[in-house]
Amino acid sequence: MQMASGASKLVMSFMAPLLLALTFVLLSGARVTDAAGVAMVRNGSSLSSYGGGEGDALISSRGRSLQAVAASSSSTTTQSALFSLDSYGAHGDGARDDTQAMAKAWSAACASPRPAVVLVPAGRSYLLRQVTLSGPCKSSITLMVKGTLVASPDMSNWNEDNRRHWIVLRGVDGLAVGGGGTVDGNGEGWWENSCKINRALPCKGAPTALSFHTCNNLRVDGLKMVNSQQIHMSVEDCTGVQLAHLSITALGTSPNTDGIHVTRSKNVQVSDCTIKTGDDCMSIEDGTHDLHVTRLVCGPGHGISIGSLGDDNSRAEVSGIFIDTVQLYGTTNGARIKTWQGGSGYAKDIVFQNMIMNSVKNPIIIDQNYCDSAKPCKAQGSAVEVSNVVFKNIKGTTISQNAINLNCSKNFPCYDIALQDINLKMVDDSGSTESTCQNAKWTKYGTVVPQPCTGTN
Question: Catalytic center at which residues (predicted)?
């Protein structure tokens, strides 16, 4: 049997990888100038060993990871200005407020006519309240986090106007963020005061730890993020993004702590990341186009979710999503698309392939009747249209019998759904798996276990 034309074209369209050429600043034998204008040189340094002391040298390179560039030769050099938080009055003791030091270092770096590095020195913790680091900047800029940025534990530092953000980078083109350091959201206090933990409390939003808004040609490489107040990293209204070698960790019981959230952005690559949180490892929302995710380890958490889309009768458009080579451990969901009734728009041209499920509750799920509300959602006629979706080479174990669930809209059925080479079994062979379908137009290719669709169709 031949694959439906839409799904076939989709698979072919992802054969060519996205190409991004981005500039990074790293250590070598280049001439470096500190904020005071004093020239410094030290040869033989690398990014992984860079402690931020005087004399560290930096060069720029294109299109490679920070780790790879660190090992490259220093034949091409450029002058780069170094702006350490310590030069702007930071305490670095994790107790006293260093927000102004960060803001001043960023302002000076952004005004530099030469490529600039804002340095968070190694071995120290810098306490920050809410801060926005804005562009455009005069030259390329790198935020080099070698130490730890830690959020203030005082929730009163966030008023109603800014409680949804902690560190925001806005309008900075060609931005690079890396260094192997840590961004610590100090989120335990926020979790305890979440309505999802304490049902008696009113629902109020908590901060996203690290937000990128309108940052084109962005690269974030080699960063640790822990215990965000809510979402760990959000990419919004950006074009040309590479996220790589990220480690994102929070308790499996922490509410709404998505790992990576992408919305209204296009040409995004995510690779070689490990995400262990209390919510979606990745949440992919309205306005996301041409997203390529590969080599992702996920769990605990809620798996990889496209949506939710179309809430509050809104229009949502998502296309060109390619999820490849993923391992999931103990997640609530595996590959999921979720849309609200009453919405409009589309989620199309989507591939989930080469996924290993380990004790996943809902390995494959499309839900066009999603409802995350204390009250039952009222049935509505419209829905976000879901089409041209491929689930391919997905294997492993589930803790629930219903391994494949295609719960689609009566008025706008999902269509061109391809199920290919799937083998999902109960943990410890404790029974046989099943599948259910409602209003779904699907096609099977190769061997599919469980047999689709044993429920109503």
Answer: 302
Q: Give the dihedral of Cα atoms 93, 94, 95, 97; nearest 10 deg.
A: 100
Do residues 225 and 232 touch, judged by C-beta distance below 8 A?
yes
Residue type, 94: G
- Identify the architecture of domain 5-129+240-449 in CATH: 3 Solenoid (2.160)
What single letter denotes the amino acid at residue 104?
K
Which amino acid is it at 219? R
pTM of the model: 0.84
Q: Which of 265, 266, 299, 258 is nearest to 282 (CA)?
A: 258
Token match 């500190």: residue?
34
- Length of the chain in residues, anyone? 457
pLDDT tens, position by position, 161-211: 788 999 999 999 999 999 999 999 999 999 998 888 887 777 778 999 999
Which among 49, 243, 23, 42 is positioned nearest to 115, based on CA atoms? Answer: 23
Say how far apart CA 385 and CA 404 lie, in whole Å.
19
Structural domain boundaries of the chain? 5-129+240-449
Per the CB < 8 A criterion, the answer to whether 59 and 30 are in contact is yes
Q: What's the pLDDT at 374?
A: 65
CB 406 within 8 A of CB 453: yes
Residues designated as active site: 302
Nearest to 171 by CA among 126, 141, 205: 141
Residues 350-366 have pLDDT tens digits of 999 999 999 999 999 99
Cβ atoms 60, 25 nearer than 8 A: yes
